[in-house]
Design a protein that fits this description.
By secondary structure, the protein is mainly alpha-helical. Helices cover 78% and strands 0% of the residues. It folds into 2 domains: 24-216, Growth Hormone, Chain: A (Up-down Bundle), CATH 1.20.1250.20; 228-423, Growth Hormone, Chain: A, CATH 1.20.1250.
């Protein structure tokens, strides 16, 4: 990873850094970076998921089917996946702060314009462009933190960024549900777009310029393609790693399908709930923040394979509870399903970097690519299952995805537990303590 040359000058808004160049605990620059990236995570994921509670309104406003309404999210996530991948490939040649700022402003402005889209196809086109624009944040934010923050504080700083992302996904759904119930879907999307612009301004004002990175240019297409071929070849020959890629797509696809169409179910008898109440259903996202950290610790203690299987099974059990016509049981099912999803995603995504043999940034990009492609494809496919079998159809499709994910995670658990058992006698013979982990 490149560092600034002696001739390169810092940007005018650069914050003071320690002698090592790192942002360290207690420094104003670190606090500014943390809150800047919290704002970036909030803006990106609130704009991404704000349309989810609005899909029932799109069906009536534009006379489209439930499956067609899901394209407002699926197109955005599909193109976000591709954008993340390509930005990741060229990230060493891109200025960190500038690309993130451009991404935030462009996605927020496009979201504001989408609020006045004259027809369905215009709305879809703007959402597709939004997906491309959003790609600059997830692909770069974690690299910025890893480069600029001292290793001993990195976990805390990264946690705040992830909290901002989770908070954005939650608040985007809740705010649009609340505003749309009183003022319509256009006001709801316009509100999120304006909040995104404010978050982008706060980001530019708060984030210190990069001190430990300078864009590396001159590598050319041949160099980039050579890295891609070598890294992708190594990763695609790694069976367990490909299993984790598949897990990401299956988990996210099932998750998005459930949240895309649970609103349709709750609007219909026997529930007949309001848009405001349906928007507040998304508050169960809060359990995901706890699940991610809790299962991360359990994975360190008991092995990632075992915890990945347990959390996937938990998500499947929660999905089965949503088949009930009793509202308390259905909500409990959504809570359990959400807890299981976030726990499984946290374990799988953390395992990718550990399992990759070099080219770890490319491995993460491939995981995110499959993750968002699964969201886009299975999220839209759920609409066809809704048309055929309503909620039972959606649950069957999502349940099939989770069942396949459970088979993969069980295989990974068996393989890694066998490897750990085989290594234990060798470690004991050498007088070492066997290290537990996935």
């Amino acid at each position: 990873m490149s560092t600034p040359s002696a001739s390169s000058s810092p940007e005018p808004d650069a914050a003071p850094a320690s002698a090592s160049g790192y942002l360290t605990r207690g420094m104003p620059g670190l606090r500014r970076a943390q809150w800047a990236l919290f704002a970036a995570g909030f803006s990106t994921f609130s704009l991404l998921y704000c349309v989810q509670p609005l899909m029932p309104l799109f069906t009536s406003a534009f006379n489209v089917s439930p499956a067609q309404s899901s394209l407002a999210l699926s197109l955005c996530t599909g193109l976000l996946a591709i954008a993340i991948f390509f930005v990741g490939l060229f990230s060493q040649a891109l200025p960190r702060k500038r690309i993130m700022a451009l991404s935030l402003f462009a996605s927020a402005v496009l979201g504001t314009i989408a609020a006045v889209a004259p027809d369905w196809h215009s709305l879809l086109a703007l959402r597709a462009l939004q997906g491309v624009a959003m790609g600059g944040v997830p692909a770069v934010a974690m690299a910025y933190l890893a480069e600029e923050v001292e290793p001993g504080t990195l976990g805390f700083a990264m946690g705040l960024y992830i909290s901002g992302s989770a908070f954005g996904g939650l608040s985007g759904r809740v705010i649009t549900g609340l505003v749309s119930d009183h003022f319509g879907w256009r006001a709801a999307m316009g509100t999120l777009g304006l909040l995104g612009i404010l978050a982008a301004v706060a980001f530019v004002w708060l984030l210190p310029a990069s001190r430990r990175f300078a864009p590396r240019r001159g590598q050319g297409w041949s160099g980039v393609l050579g890295d891609v071929r070598a890294g992708a070849g190594a990763h695609l020959k790694n069976g367990p790693l490909c299993g984790l890629f598949a897990m990401g797509g299956l988990l996210m696809g099932a998750f998005v399908a459930v949240y895309n169409y649970v609103g349709f179910r709750l609007l219909l008898p026997p529930f007949s709930l309001s848009q405001t109440f349906i928007g507040f259903i998304f508050l169960v996202y809060l359990v995901g923040i706890f699940a991610s950290t809790y299962f991360g610790r359990l994975a360190d203690r008991h092995g990632r394979g075992m915890m990945l299987s347990a959390s996937t099974g938990l998500a499947l059990a929660g999905l089965l509870l949503t088949l009930s016509d009793a509202l308390p049981i259905l909500i409990a099912g959504i809570v359990v399903f959400t807890f299981g999803f976030f726990a499984a995603h946290a374990v799988a995504s953390g395992w990718v970097g550990q399992m990759a043999r070099g080219y770890k940034a490319l491995a993460a990009s491939l995981y995110l690519l499959v993750y968002y492609v699964g969201s886009s494809v299975l999220g839209s496919l759920g609409g066809h299952f809704w048309t055929v079998g309503q909620w039972q159809g959606v649950a069957a499709m999502a349940g099939g995805s989770l069942a396949l994910a459970l088979v993969i995670s069980t295989g990974l658990a068996w393989r890694t537990s066998g490897s750990r058992r085989a290594q234990a006698p060798v470690a004991h013979a050498r007088g070492n303590t066997a290290v537990r982990g996935g």
